[in-house]
Amino acid sequence: MITIYKVGIIGAGKVGTSLGLYLFKKGNLELSGYYSRNAESSKYSADLTKTLAYESLKKMVDENQILIITVPDDEISRVWKQLLKLNIEDKVVCHCSGSLSSKIFFDSTIKKVNCCSFHPMLAISNKEESYKALSSAFFTLEGDLKAVSIIQDELKLNGNPTKLIYEDDKRKYHLATVFISNLVLALSNISVELLTQYDFTEKEALMALSVLGESNINAFFQKGILKTLTGPVERNDLRTVKGHIDSIKDGNFELEKEIYINLSKYLVEIAKEKNPNRDYSGLKKLLESEGTD
C-alpha cells in the first residue's frame, strides 16, 4: 500500500503558489493547502491550486505530515519558532531559500523533526505563470536523509534534475545563481543605457541587443567559456580596449568604468588559457594603470 503524505505550504507568495501548481501531481505527496498571515493571499493560492486555505498554523500542522515554508528568507526563523510551539514531532519541515541551509531549523533533533531545504534554480516572477517553467528547473537539496529523499523522489518523478549539496555551501551556491541571474541583468542594462546615450530608445536597444545577448549566452551554455569567448580582450586588442575606457571616461560613467576594467582583467586570465602563446602583458598593464586613476 502506497503511503500518501499530505503537504501544507506556509507562505502564499510566488514560490509557494508556483510549487503548489507544479509539483504535487505524480508522486505520493498531496498538497492540502496554504497558510499565510495574509488570509487573502492564502485563499488566492488555495483557489488556484484547488486546495484549502488554512485559518490557523496549528490546524495545518495537525492535518499535514510535510510542511514547506516558502516565506521570505528573513521570515523563516520566525515561522520555525512558531512551529516549535506546536506538535511537530515526526513531521518533515522544509524551506525553499537559496542562501539559507537547514541549519536554521535549530532544535529539530530534539523535536524529532526531519528537515531540509530545496531550491529551484529559476527566477519565479509571478503566481500564475511561473510554475510552467519549473518543469525544466534544476533543484538543489540539502538536509537530513529522510526529508531530502522524500522531496527528491517527488522531483525526480516530475523529471527535474537534482543535486545534493552541503549545508555549508548554500551561500556560495546562491552567490553563483545571483551572478548568472541578477548580475547578468545589471550588465545587460548597462548595455541598454549606453545605447540610449546615442539616440536609441529603450525598445530599440533591447531589440538590437537581443540576438547578440541570446546567441552568446546560448553558446556559453553549450560550449563553455573557452570556446565562446571573443571580443577585444580575447584578441588582445589594446587600442579598442583603451578606446572603450576613454569613452566611459568621456561619459562620466565611473561605476561602469570600474566594472569594465575588473571584468576585463578577469577575461584576460581566461583569454590566456584559451591562447597560451599570446602575450597579454601589455593589456594587463593597460588595465592595471587605468584602474588606478
Can you put this structure into words, describing what you see?
The structure is a single chain. The chain has 293 residues and is of the alpha/beta class. 52% of the residues lie in helices and 13% in strands. It is built from twelve helices and eight strands. Strand 7 (139-143), helix 5 (145-157) and strand 8 (162-164) form a beta-alpha-beta unit. Helix 1 (14-22) runs parallel beside helix 2 (39-49), helix 6 (170-196) runs antiparallel to helix 7 and helix 10 (238-250) packs parallel to helix 12 (281-290). The radius of gyration is 24 Å and the shape is elongated. The model has no long low-confidence stretch (mean pLDDT 95).
Structural class: alpha/beta
Span from first to last CA?
A: 72 Å
Name the average pLDDT.
Answer: 95
Number of helices: 12
Topology as a string of helices (H) and strands (E) = EHEHEHEHEEEHEHHHHHHH
Q: How many E strands?
A: 8
**Beta-strand content:** 5-15%
Q: Into which percent range does the helicity of residues fall?
A: 40-55%
How much is the radius of gyration in Å?
24 Å
Q: What spatial order of strands do you see in the largest sheet?
A: 3-2-1-4-5-6-7-8
The coarse silhouette is elongated
Low-confidence segments: none
Biggest beta-sheet profile: 8 strands, mixed
